[in-house]
Prior knowledge:
The complex is a heterodimer of chains A (873) and B (370).
Chain A: E1 2-9, E2 18-20, E3 27-31, H1 38-50, H2 58-63, E4 73-80, E5 83-90, E6 96-101, E7 104-107, H3 108-119, H4 136-140, E8 141-142, H5 155-169, H6 175-192, H7 201-249, H8 252-396, H9 400-423, E9 425-428, E10 437-438, E11 441-442, E12 447-450, E13 454-459, E14 462-466, H10 472-493, H11 498-524, H12 538-547, H13 562-623, H14 630-656, H15 660-699, H16 703-764, E15 769-772, E16 778-783, E17 786-789, H17 795-815, E18 821-825, H18 833-846, E19 851-856, H19 859-863, E20 868-870
Parallel strand pairs in A: 3-19, 3-20, 8-18, 18-19
Antiparallel strand pairs in A: 1-2, 1-4, 4-5, 5-6, 6-7, 9-12, 10-11, 10-13, 13-14, 15-16, 16-17
Chain B: E1 2-7, H1 21-44, E2 49-52, H2 64-75, E3 80-83, H3 96-101, E4 108-110, E5 117-120, E6 123-128, E7 153-159, H4 179-182, E8 187-191, E9 197-200, E10 203-205, E11 221-227, E12 234-239, E13 244-251, H5 255-268, E14 274-285, H6 286-303, E15 306-317, H7 320-327, H8 331-344, H9 348-369
Parallel strand pairs in B: 1-2, 2-3, 3-4, 6-7, 7-8, 8-10, 13-14, 14-15
Antiparallel strand pairs in B: 1-11, 5-6, 9-10, 11-12
Helix pairs in contact in B: 1-2, 6-9, 7-8, 8-9
Amino acid sequence: MQLERIVATNFRKFRDPMVIEGLGSGLNVVIEPNETGKSTLLEALRAGLFVRHGTKNQLAQSFMPFGENVAPEVEIEFQIDGERWRVAKKFLKSPALEVHGPKGRTSGDAAEEKLQALLGFERSTSRDADLDSYGALGLLWVGQGDALSIKAPGEIVRNSVRSTLEAEVGSIMGGATHDAVRAAVDKQFADYWTPGGAIGGRQKSARDAAQKTRDAAYQAASELAALELSFTELADKQARMKVLKRELADERDAQARADLMKSLETAQAAALMLGQRKAERSAAQADADALGEFAERHKNAVKAKTEAAGALADANAERANVEAEVADAKKKEESAKHALSSARDARAAARSALGDARLLATAASQHSAIADAKSRHERLVELESELAEAKKIEASGVDPQTLKSLESLQRDVATASAELSAGSTTIELVGEASHITVDGNEFGDGARTIVEESRIGIGGGAELIVKPPRGTASAQARLDDLNARLKSELSQLGVASVSEARNRVDAARDAKASTAALDARIEAITPAVPAIELGTGADALRKFVASIADSDTVAPDTIPDLAALEKRFEDAEEGLATADGTYQAALEALRKAEEKDRPLATAETSARSTLASAEQQIAKIEADPRFANLDAELLAARKEAAGADVAWQKAQENAGSLDPDAIERQIEKIDKRAESARTQATELQLEIARLEATIETEGGKGLAEAAAKAEEEAEAAQRSLDRVSEEAATVKLLRDTLEDARLETSRTYVGPIARRAKRHIERLLPGCDLSFTEDLQLQSITRAGTEEGCTHLSRGTQEQLAVLTRLAFADMLLEKGRPVSLILDDPLAYSDDARLDLMSDILAEAAERMQVILLTCRERAFRHLGGTHIAIG
Amino acid sequence: MFRFIHTADWQLGKPYAWAEPEVRSALTDARFDAIDTIGKLANEHSATHVLVAGDVFDTEGPDPRTIVQALSRMERHACHWWLLPGNHDFVRAGGLWDRIEARLPGNVYLISEAQPSELEGGMWLLPAPLVHRHQDDDPTEKFDTMKTPGAKLRIGLAHGSIVDFGAQGETKNQIAPDRAARSGLDYLALGDWHGSLQVNARTWYSGTPEVDRFQRDEPGKALLVELKQSAEPVVTELRTGKYQWLKRDWRVDDAAGFEAQRAQLLDECNPAETLVRLTLSGITTLTDRVAMLRSLEDELAHRFRYFAFSATDLVAKPSDDDLAAFAAEGILGTAASTLNARIQEDGPESLIARRALERLFVEHAKAIGS
């Protein structure tokens, strides 16, 4: 397809005709600044070819210049396959369309259809511009900004593309037949299902109808069942009524009741008689009993009197015996009391004598103890003096450690001395030579030890100088020092020699031992003597001796025989005890004798009282008039009672066979039965009337027929539902299967489309792989193994891909022989220079196959491109 | 000679709710019309009495309209109608017949008790009305003891099945097969069996005057009975039924077989007054099956008063030709083979898939045709 000339009049901003002419078959670049109407040009093209001339919709309204009421007009001239076409369209006011083609002129709707067939688009039903309905040119005429995102091509383009590829992929989308079948199936689906696949339409109606009729059938059946229940109940009640009536009519109970009434009368008479006899018997018995008791009382009183008299006599006799016994006991008691008193006196005397004697004995023993203490004190003084001595010796003793050091020092002296003598020179003068001096001093006898240079004057002024070996002098000095130290230490200790010191050590050790022995002896002679209040220890003894006066030491004259006195006291004690025991025994004997008398006295008193009472009673009884003929009267009363008893027993026998209570209960039972039957009959009658009324009302309503009808309707509705459900399932399965098949088929086209698009896109993104969705939208590209969704690509890349995929579709449509031209309005706004060049090259190449029109405001960007450069005029 | 009409099982008020409303009302009206037909036949054949052997009404609680229709139709004819309660409309206290009794026209007699009636001089009717829906004893036993002084003819009227009458009959209310002989009846008019049937020389079922279900092809009848003393009754069947109910099972394997059956069916009846229940079975191609069903649905069904069919057992196997026709259609071909594969898998889905494939064929054919 090659657009050649476009004229827009009264269209949008072009009040005056806007003319574009001289569009060539290849690349055309329309470079114009902003606001000059490039985009309006594209609008005018679309309006002229795709928007129905007769429409007055919003879109058509928008064609009118703002604020003016004129008719927008568009005129377009183009070639397809070498044939020339001219389209003139006028909107809104006297709308018109004329199409001049190779076969002449058409106008109006026929011209619209001609254009649709020629350019492969559909009548749009949208109020706005519907690019999808414009077919291939809707995709390829890209408005400003339309190419910024990658979109799926519309159905018309997809179908064209697919039909292009059908031979290649060996798959068929189905075309018109498929569309018709699918539309029919979709329509049927909509009859049974909601768009979301839920139960709807006829299926829902059938389900609701089934439910409704089921409810109605249930309702009708319930009503009928209620009526039938009334019939059943009525029959049942009537049957019971029949039985009741028979019962009520039965004479047997009435007869039985009359018989029972008769029995009741008899029984009541007998019961009356029995009561009377019983009273008579009780009265006679009471009389006899009273008399018998009267006689018994008299008899008892006489008996009591006799017994009391006997008891009194017995008590008196007994008491006489006991009194003698008491007197004897009293005498014995007094004598024992006397003896006891004497024994007490004797014991007192003995005790007094013993006490005195003991005082004397104590004084004597104290005296002796004091004397003893004195003598021990003397000994103590001796021992303490010895102890002080020993302690002194112990104190003057040398410490063994000191002794050791002394001994060591002595050994050192000995060693030093030995060393000196070993190194020293000994000179000995033999003979008499008094003039010989040593260091000025007379030589003396014996040998001399020279330890230092010594001048031995040998007279005549001559001196013999003896020089002992060197060191002898120091040895001498050391020995001297040691000796000095030893001496000093010994003097410090107050001893002359080491051996004396050793002796001192031994003496101190001995003194220490004797100190311990003396301490023990002192302790032994200073025991405590409680008799003289003397404590333990030396101090106590010293104090005691110091405290005593000489008078204390006087001894008593005589000391009585204590043992004899004690013996006397013991004897007196014993005598007292014996006397006391005797007295106690006598006292007890007296008490016992007196005890024996007490009950006897009581018995005597009691017997006396009983006797008096009995006598009184007898007197009273015998004064009673009944006493005169008591025996005869008693006999008569007893006879009377026996007779009454017999009469009572007989009456009892008579009454026993007829219990009026039992008879009354029987009568009551019969009465109750009759009453209950009557009540039941009344109730039943009421029930029957109610049921009859119900049946009368309900029975005429035709419930059975209605129920049968409702049941059949419910069954029919259910069958219908089953059919509809099956039909719905069928349609659903068919639709789902068709949809699956469509998707599956769609997928087979994706590969070839991707391959074709890749030819272009690979120049932009070398080595990429493309992935398309089933509706032929470029979905993602894969570069170096990484897949990127198209929406995540940079805006520039997205725009470039959008142009390139369009180019790919245009190529495919071209293959199909469709009229194709590519218009890009202000494209590649986001492309960098390198990409812009590349895209320019691709577009220039494409222009060799199809007409390409670039509308741009960026003169510099596209100035270098060849082709036809056109200005809007 | 004594002439009367023997009929039974009117089943008035039968709902037919399974049918669409216009069929339903036609069938309902036909049952009332049958009363008029019987009345006219009685007049034509000079029969004074019409004995209805039970089940006058379909239920014991019919709609008031049903009752009024029944009584007013009977009233229009001069003959005497003797109505015997059957198991569907049995007698009970406060029940159907108690309510109707006061409204009975002068020529309609209700037999609510088992008491003999003298129809005319010496012509005695011995009835056995049912007092329960199901009676365990033989309701006609009382005939033995019924007094019919001066009887020239004794006619029994009862409702129930004959003992061992057949598996399909009611098992209750059973009547001794030799009841006529045992009770000295000249004729025993029975009801309950909906087809007319001779049990023995003196015992007949009249059948229903208007057929009410797909059980037998014959239209409804009433019996004209002519009795003479010491002679066997002469019984003539009279057609009373308007509609014919046909139940058909066709085994068809191809279009030709189907066409033959179709032609025969149209030939043997008056379609406008015929109800058909058809079951198709066989194995055929998908194309044939679709054609047959289209013929049934679009043409045959509309000819009849009522037409129902089941083609579940008519199994369509899509032939290679069938499938080839689709193969050129791309998506449709894919869908067809998918469904065909699913049909091969047994199970409930298979049946749906079969129907779906069939539907696809139908829609495809429509699309091609348009």
